[in-house]
Amino acid sequence: MLPVQVSQHLNLSETAFLKSELFTLFSEMKMPAEKSEQLENELFKTYSAPWRKYHNLSHVHSMLMLLQTSEVQPGNSLVFRAAIWFHDVVYHVFKKNNERKSAEFAIEKLGKYLNPQDAVLLREMIESTKSHRPLSNHKDLLLFLDFDLAVLAAKKDVYKKYADAVWEEYSRLPAFFYRLGRRKVLSHFYERKRIYFTKHFRRLFEKQARQNLRSEIESLKLLSSCPNS
Question: Mind listing the pLDDT tens digit for each residue in 172-182?
């Protein structure tokens, strides 16, 4: 079962887990304590913005929990975990450069603690989430994209919470236009030959992800056909 949750608030143990994970990550990078504390505060404040209903600390927590339980592990755990923390750090629903800005922020904050190859991989991981098309064939990058889309294969009730949370993030947009855009995004994934890039994810989660996508697409079609909905 996927350890995926959708929530705007974390409990004390979940928050403690995130803080411990971040402390370990920054310690492995040899980041000075003062810098580490400042960046932790910045990340927690950013991801806790009240308008973040899905792209928040709960999403980060889910990806880190999946990393702990997954049979398939990245070769470069440090960069992988950094990408989890930084891939949505810049997120404005009506901007189209979130991924590039997130990557720039990550390199600005972490670049001096990474070797050049790791910095390139980190940037590619984050920027590839724009369309979920990999910028390289690095195995860790492909696995990271699958982790980011793990929620598509969640249980129906969790998937419903995810879909509702994304809609809340776009609530300033008229419902009709949101549904058109959301259907386009979901169809982009559903019409791909494969949603997931790794054999492991395809074997375990492809079928459920397609069922969830098809269900939401059909629901959006039905709602769009009702003028007063």
Answer: 999 999 999 99
Clarify whether residues 101 and 201 are in a common domain: no
Looking at 107, 125, 151, the residue that finishes a domain is 151
DSSP states along 70-86: -SS--S-HHHHHHHHHH
Helix, strand or coil for residue 141? Answer: helix
Q: Are residues 41 and 138 in the same domain?
A: yes
Looking at the structure of the chain, the number of domains it has is 2
Residue carrying the six token digits 């403690």 = 16
Does 129 lie in the same domain as 23? yes
How high is the mean pLDDT of the chain? 96
pLDDT band at residue 229 under the 50/70/90 scheme = low
Q: What is the pLDDT of residues 42-54, one digit of tens each?
A: 999 999 999 999 9
Residue 205 and residue 167 in contact, taking contact as beta carbons nearer than 8 Å: no
- The pairs formed by 129-135 with CB atoms below 8 angstroms and a separation of 24 or more are 129/87, 129/88, 129/99, 130/98, 130/99, 130/100, 131/188, 132/189, 134/197
Percent over 90 (pLDDT), the chain:
95
- The closest of 2, 128, 8 to 67, measured between CA atoms, is 2
Q: Are residues 50 and 163 in the same domain?
A: no
C-alpha 115: how far from chain center? 24
Enumerate the H helices of the chain as residue ranges: 12-28, 33-47, 57-69, 77-86, 98-110, 116-128, 139-148, 156-169, 175-190, 199-224
- Contact yes or no for 145/195 (Cβ under 8 A): no
| Cβ within 8 Å of residue 92, ≥6 positions away | 98
